[in-house]
Specification:
Elements (H helix, E strand, L loop, with lengths): L2 H25 L9 E3 L21 E3 L19 E3 L20 E3 L22 E3 L11 H8 L5 E2 L11 H88 L3 H25 L6
Parallel strand pairs: 1-2, 2-3, 3-4, 4-5, 5-6
Family: Belongs to the ANP32 family.
GO molecular function: histone binding
InterPro entries: AN32 (IPR045081), Leu-rich_rpt (IPR001611), LRR_dom_sf (IPR032675), U2A'_phosphoprotein32A_C (IPR003603)
Length: 292
Amino acid sequence: MSEQNMQDENSVATEQNSMVHRIALEVKRREPSSINELVLDNCARCYSIQGLTDEFCNLRVLSIINVGLQSLAKFPKLPKLRKLYLSDNRLSSGLENLEGCPNLTLLILAGNKFKSIDELKPLSKLPKLSILDLMNCEVTSVDGYRETMFNMLPQLKYLDNADKDGEEKDSDDEDDEDEDEEDNENGASDGEDNEGEEEDEYEEDDNKTGLKALYNGTFEEGDDDDEESYEGNSDEEEEESDEDDDLSEGDVSAETIEKPSKGEKRKRGADDQQDNVVENSNNDDDGPPHKI
């Protein structure tokens, strides 16, 4: 193997190890899908994308500034990526590899090697791109550059830090866009939370209504039972009272029969004495008279 080939292989190995190592340092022990922002600036000799994969599916901000990047051939699909910083590299083509980032709103390509507008046409496949920076690229000196770019990208708000009328972009505008994006995302999640809360409240109301009806029914049944019990007890008491009255009347009658009045007792006593005299007289006829 020639010395030149060995140098090329060493160069490729250094390139791969540089970006891969940097990604490992940035990610540490976290899952790639949990990363929202990744900064790989100033990696040495990174001519192509290495170590960055589709696993970074929730990445929103990616910065690869001043790494010597010449190709975007292995750029991953990042559906949630919104901001991409690729300034001060050696890119001159390959923007079609960014089509896997449909939510990209900001793209910084300043200080690269783009020379013609044709090389920028793939950007029309990014429907949400609103901020584009190509400052210090040769393409900016092409006649009709700004007008052509705004016509090609109708959704574009700012090109090279100025709007279609040449008014410079306020730094607060970008912050406002970020806030709007966050509000939209939070609004969607809040909407889901509110729906969940409304469902919970609805279920709680149903439970309260059911419990209320249950308790009311129980109390009403209890009241009915109490009333029936009270009425039953009243009837029983009345029956018992009637029985007591009957018994009392019976006792009185019995006493009246068994216990004669005083006059009757005296009369009965006289009659008894008269009967005794008659009996004694009958006995006297049989024997000698008795002295009284």
